[in-house]
Amino acid sequence: MDIVTRWRGSVHDSRIFRECRLKQRFEAGAFSGILLGDSGYPCTPYLFTPLLNPTTPQEERYNRSHIRTRNTVERCFGLWKQRFRCLLRGMFGDIETAKKTIVACAVLHNMAIDMREDVFSGERDSIEQYSSEPIVQRYIAPSIRGNIRRRQFIETHFQ
After folding, report:
1. CA-based nearest residue to 64, from 45, 36, 35, 32
2. What is the pLDDT of residues 10-29, one digit of tens each?
């Protein structure tokens, strides 16, 4: 849906998201779904993060579900990088060419998925490397509205 290739080198995901069009669209109410982020993101009404200190069985179930779902997304990135190995190695040379290459790889990967192209066996083996442990990054103070919405979600779906 959205790919950002604005910065050279390693930039934290939360910064990219903070400045991307998808975030603006969520804030404008264009989507009714929920995004999942790790603890490097603020908890908002549309982006849920794991609970840092779950205290109830419901909160534990929420965190386990959150981690399993995020791992699925991480495996998708792993498949993309296995299909286009240049994404694993990093790119050198002209920044504009690198940006276009990344976007082209994303488009071609989505086309392969739409066409139900089978992944080659090397991809299936390598995607199991992702852990089910939470990824804890620097803490960003969560928003009150985000916490309230996450609490309502947990009470509704994890009882």
Report:
1. 36
2. 778 888 888 888 999 999 99
Q: Which residues contact 68 (CB under 8 A, 6 or more apart)?
A: 132
The pLDDT tens digits for 32-52 are 899 999 888 999 999 999 999
What are the DSSP calls for 99-134, one per residue? Answer: HHHHHHHHHHHHHHHHTTPPPPHHHHHHGGG--SS-
Global pTM value: 0.73
Cα→Cα distances 30→21, 71, 146, Å: 11, 26, 17
- Report the C-alpha gap between 68 and 119 in whole angstroms: 21
- Between CA 70 and CA 136 the distance in angstroms is 13
* Closest C-alpha among 7, 11, 12 to residue 137: 12
Closest CA to 150 of 71, 68, 42: 42
Q: Is the pLDDT of residue 132 over 90?
A: no
Residue type, 84: F
Closest to 74 measured CA to CA, from 21, 135, 26, 20: 135
Dump pLDDT digits (tens) for 82-94.
889 898 888 888 8
Dig out the tokens for 125 from the structure. 């083996």
Asked whether the beta carbons of 40 and 138 are under 8 A apart, the reply is: yes
